[in-house]
Amino acid sequence: MLSKNQIKKLRGLQRKKERKNTGLYVVEGKKIVEEILDSSSDWLELYATSGWFRQHPKYEELDKSFEMSEKDLAQVSTLKTPNEVLLVLKQKDEIDLTEVQSDKMILALDGVKDPGNMGTIIRLADWFGVKHILCTSDSVDQYNPKTVQSAMGSINSVQLHYGDLAQMLSDLNTHQIYACDLDGASIYKTDLAEQSILLMGSESHGISDEILHLADQKITIPSFSNSGIDSLNVATATAIVLSEFRSK
Question: What's the sign of the alpha-carbon dihedral 171, 114, 11, 143?
Fold first, then answer.
């Protein structure tokens, strides 16, 4: 059984303000937790049902492991169907932007607010070897529970930088900025620079004029359909463009 303070703490970490104040976040669900446990020992607290501990006995006797009942799990979980185990971790330390300049490919996101899309983009970045994502301050929090769920273990592998995106892009003058925009040139016919920043816009508004003005070139994913589809989901578009970048 969890104490009232433990339940209060775990429920509090569902809120952005509390995550910011404590510097902690929660991941939950068997697959994502086990992926993190297999790849890192840098976690603070493990909460799991007796059934999960029976399957993973090496974690049961640790000082930072706590057994919880199904009732406890239902109180602290953000999932519609709670899933046996959750992990409390410390948020990553911020990294100075000067350390980003040596990376050949960087992602930049202007106002991406859907947590599922953000998590998927983080997972994609990890898959394609992109280590840094630049985000406007109004982009969704990377530690939002839905973002963490969508990103899976990749949340620990990719560094996000939040702030004045225009300033960050201006500071990275070593890279060519390619803005994904409906008015751009076909990505399949574009020669891409070795050091590139891929700039993606929000789900509903695209890239703001202020940010778009900083792009060296606008690119697009041409449609081959006559059905009238006018745009792609930002995560889907990111997957296509990253794949094309990596193929060249």
Answer: negative
pLDDT in tens, 155-205: 889 999 999 999 999 999 889 999 999 899 999 999 888 899 999 998 788
- How far apart CA 20 and CA 86 sit, in angstroms, is 19
Q: What's the CA gap between 86 and 6, in Å, rounded?
A: 13
Right CATH for 4-90 from 3.30.1330.30, 3.40.50.620, 3.40.50.1820, 3.30.830.10: 3.30.1330.30
For domain 97-247, the CATH architecture is 3-Layer(aba) Sandwich (3.40)
pTM, two decimals, is: 0.91
Q: CA-CA distance, 217 to 197, in Å (whole number)?
A: 11
